[in-house]
Protein 1
Amino acid sequence: MTQRVAATHDLAQKKRQVQGYLAAQPPKTRAALRVIRGAIRAAAPRAVEHFSYGIPGFTLDGRTLIWYAGWKQHVSLYPMTAAIKRTFARELDGYEMSKGTVRFALSERIPIPLVKRIAKARAAEIRQLHS
């Protein structure tokens, strides 16, 4: 198998894994995850869909851009780096957070503009790592 064919096969497999993950979610969680997925794609159109650690995400320039996951009461974004937490501290106020995660309750609207800004900030962090 050529390297190009192998890469195409790997991308197709990742896409199937993401689709399977989304299909397995309860309807409300699945809808929220699709909104997040679309926001990330819009913010980072060069990002490549990825599936690792049992959750979907995107890579950019071979590095993890962002993961997203669904849970019973919320959806989460990872990683929330220290720089992103500082940059978006005011906007993230009120959302449940842990060391590297922000959680958006399913009982509330997903803050699409914030998700896009976080994805763009992560893309900028990745570009800085490559500089």
Protein 2
Amino acid sequence: MKRIIYRLAATTVVGIGLLSGVAAAQSGSISTTGADSYNKVSSKVKNYTRINNDTSVRANNSNSQSSLSGSANSSMNTTGGGASSGATSNSNSFGASVAVNNGSTAGQAAAGAMLADGSDASGTITNTGYNSTNVVSSKVSNSLHVDNDTTICLTNSSTQSAMSGDANVSQNTTGGSATTGAASNNNSATISVSVTN
């Protein structure tokens, strides 16, 4: 007599919710299953965060200055006095301070992604049948992409011209002194740049 035995396999799968960036308790349980059953409690957490920081800072200081003192003339006098022209000068000062911080944004995003790290996931399978297969699995996938593009352009353009006037003593019986004033240009630029990615 040939005995043919057919086994019917029962399958039971419990999935624990997929979370992204939210901390929540995850648990699942399976109990009292039949023979030859396949029982699985599965937890999957997938976090994907992409941060793209495009920062562009531009500062431009364009300065054009020209100064010219007048002329001083003492001429055709019996006794000529002194002749002097005044001083002339130009001054330009440029100060720029730039601070760019993208690191805190990336850090906050990374911390937020870790909230759902799957550490609070739990699963139990109890009182299962003969020859059953029982699996409890937890899978966590974290992906963080940070792209920082920072462009800083600071320009200080200064064009200066300073010219003192003429001092002339001429055609006098007794001539005095002739003095021209000083001519000077000054340009100062102070730039401070701090970038944190």
